[in-house]
Design a protein that fits this description.
Elements lengths: L1 H24 L6 E5 L8 E7 L12 E6 L8 E5 L8 E7 L16 E6 L2
Antiparallel strand pairs: 1-3, 2-3, 4-6, 5-6
Length: about 120
């Protein structure tokens, strides 16, 4: 029975790893995903919103975020993004400002925390 459990566990872990990888790797341009804030923003994605989510831990600080696939969007596209992750390659920052949806720090402030970015290449 222990071999069966070990095999089932190995298959289950492999399937989970493929699912997590496919979640962001096979997204269409502009798609969004909700993830815990402890998860790094993948390359080609941007943070667009932060909030507190019990499923991501019991802290009172923003610990969940919505990320958006920026790779593949047409040249000239502009996005409003949180400054918690750098813009992807081929995007430039046009402006910076405060956005209440992008409060990603435990210490609230009205400092600039968002950017408007534009795809240039």
């Amino acid at each position: 029975m222990s071999r069966f459990r070990a095999a089932a566990l190995a298959v289950g872990c492999a399937a989970a790893a493929l699912t997590l990888t496919a979640t962001t790797a096979h997204a269409a341009p502009g798609d969004t995903r909700n993830v815990c804030g402890s998860q790094l923003t993948p390359s080609g994605w941007v943070d667009v919103q932060w909030w507190n989510e019990y499923a991501c831990g019991s802290t009172f600080s923003p610990n969940a975020k919505r990320i958006q696939q920026a790779d593949g969007l047409p040249i000239g596209t502009t996005l409003t993004v949180c400054a918690s992750a750098l813009p992807p390659s081929g995007w430039v920052q046009l402006s910076e400002f405060y956005n209440s949806s992008c409060r990603y720090s435990v210490s609230p402030s009205f400092n600039n925390n968002s950017w408007q970015i534009k795809r240039v290449s």
